[in-house]
Structures are given as C-alpha cells and as structure tokens.
C-alpha cells in the first residue's frame, strides 16, 4: 500500500499545496516531481502518483501558486511571470529538500518546469514531457488568450464553468462531475482564482519562454521521454517528433487516444511507459 497525502508548506508568506505519495518502504532512489498545466492542478496526477509510489519512489505534485489549493497572491505580492515562478519553484524544491529528482511536466505553465530543468540540469535525473509547448511557433489557444482581454477576461475567469470548458476541450473527453467539482472548487470559493488566472495569462511571456526552451535543447543531455497525446487540439506532435529524431537521448512515445491533458484520461496507458523509463535509471 502507498500513502497519498495532501500537504502544505509556507514559503515567503505564500502557502504551497502539494500531494505527496510515499512508498511502503523507504528508498534512496531519486523522487519524482510532477508539474501540471493550466487548470489541471496536482489532482490530475493522482493515479500516476500512486503508481510511482507502488514502484518504490517518492512522488511530489504541487499546485502552482495561483492555482488549485495553493495561495493566490495579488499581483503586488507575486508578479506571475515565468521568472517569478522559477524563483518560487527553486525555493519550493529547497524547502522540500529535493536536490535531485526526476521531473515530469505537462501543459502551459508546466513549461516553466522545462525552463527550470535547463537552468538546473544538475538537479534533474530524468525528464518526462507530456503535451507541453516546446517551440517558439507555439501560441496560446484562443480559449486561453481570451482570459487576458480587458473586461471579457475578468468576466470569463469568474465563471466556474470555464474549468469544464477548458479541461474537456483539451482532454477531448467528458470529465465526471466528481472530478470537475474538485477542479472547480477554487473558483467557487472566491474571486481570487479568476484574478490569478488572468494575471498568469497576461504575464506568461510565452514567446520569450519558448525561445529559451528552444535554445536549451542544444545543451540538454539528460535522458528524456516525450509521451504525447496525438489528438491534442492545441499542440502539434511535429516539434516533439523532430526533437526525438535529432537527439539520441530523447524518446518519443505516441498516445493515440490522448489529447492535451493525457494524465486525466490515459494514466493507465502512461503509467507503464513512465515507470519503465524511470526504472531503467533506478534499477
């Protein structure tokens, strides 16, 4: 049996929420950190966290600041730029005593995890990428760009049904009311979740972040696996396939039925692929 816990930690007066999965027996193997994309929350990793712990590894999945059950600071307190997120993420890893780990990233904002990896390669054992923007050709989906529009964006992001529309559009499947209620919860509590989402979109600086990621591949030599939902309505498979063709240390695996949030509906398919990849390092 594994132990899946919900925890919080306060750093610089901001509370991070995270899910931690602990194996039955302690292991000296590197833990696994999973970073979610917009609106997916750490909850989307629940099945994979359990499977990771069953394999004997510790698993950590935080909610980004501004999302899920983590703090939703005002823009005066936190500027919601990639640089701010990167600095906050470094402090989170330090506070959790995560000096070396496997990293799994997914989605928009999850791409900040790639920037972190490229800036701190000494901390990363292996890298796994699920449907994450990877090149300067990427643009935010129209559905998300609207969240930054004056007045319209503020109105859209105060509607909890925005969560349903985004997750179901991206995943391509109906999500159960039970799960949607968990994803919607921050928007039902107060207006801060919507305001944080607007701030995130307005300050994402996607083109600059993508330029850094695009350049980063030239120096990156850690074992990397790209697991890609081929039906993603927002991100093409062309770039990840080209990366795998160019670099021997990058593997590309197709999820024929997967889409933008493959961990929500394809965890059973992802799990053996992911764990086999991680086991090769820890065996």
Descriptive tags:
283 residues; 8-stranded mixed β-sheet; 12 helices; 41% helix; hydrolase; hydrolase activity; Epox_hydrolase-like; AB_hydrolase_1
Domain count, please report it. 1
What is the tally of beta strands? 8
CATH names the topology as Rossmann fold
Structural class: alpha/beta
Mean pLDDT: 95
How does CATH name the architecture?
Answer: 3-Layer(aba) Sandwich
What's the number of helices? 12
User: What is the C-alpha radius of gyration, as a whole number of Å?
Assistant: 17 Å
- How large a portion of the residues is in β-strands, by DSSP E? 15-25%
Which spans of ≥5 residues are poorly predicted at pLDDT below 50? none
User: What is the string of helix and strand elements?
Assistant: EEEHEHEHEHHHHHHEHEHH
Largest sheet: 8 strands, mixed
- From the spread of the alpha carbons, the general shape counts as globular
* Strand arrangement across the biggest beta sheet: 1-2-4-3-5-6-7-8
Please identify the oligomeric state. single chain
- In CATH, the homologous superfamily goes by the name Alpha/Beta hydrolase fold, catalytic domain
């Amino acid at each position: 049996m594994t132990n899946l816990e919900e925890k919080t930690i306060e750093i610089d007066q901001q509370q991070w929420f995270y899910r931690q999965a602990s194996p039955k027996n302690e292991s000296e193997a590197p833990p696994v950190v999973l970073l979610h994309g917009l609106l997916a929350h750490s909850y989307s990793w629940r099945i994979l966290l359990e499977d990771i712990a069953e394999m004997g590894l510790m698993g950590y999945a935080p909610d980004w600041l501004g999302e899920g059950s983590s703090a939703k600071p005002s823009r005066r307190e936190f500027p919601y730029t990639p640089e701010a997120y990167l600095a906050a993420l470094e402090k989170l890893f330090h506070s959790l005593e995560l000096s070396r780990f496997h990293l799994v990233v997914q989605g928009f904002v999850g791409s900040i995890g790639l920037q972190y990896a490229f800036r701190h390669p000494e901390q990363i054992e292996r890298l796994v990428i699920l449907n994450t923007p990877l090149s300067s050709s990427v643009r935010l989906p129209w559905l998300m760009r609207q969240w930054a529009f004056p007045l319209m964006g503020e109105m859209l992001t105060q509607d909890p049904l925005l969560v349903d529309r985004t997750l179901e559009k991206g995943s391509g499947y109906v999500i159960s009311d039970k799960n949607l209620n968990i994803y919607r919860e921050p928007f039902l509590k107060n207006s801060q979740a919507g305001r944080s989402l607007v701030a995130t979109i307005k300050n994402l600086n996607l083109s600059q972040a993508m330029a850094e990621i695009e350049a980063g591949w030239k120096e990156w030599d850690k074992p990397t696996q790209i697991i890609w939902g081929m039906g993603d309505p927002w991100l093409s498979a062309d770039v990840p396939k080209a990366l795998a063709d160019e670099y021997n240390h990058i593997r590309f695996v197709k999820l024929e039925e997967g889409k933008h949030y493959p961990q929500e509906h394809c965890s059973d398919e992802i799990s053996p692929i992911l764990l086999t990849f991680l086991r090769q390092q820890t065996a």
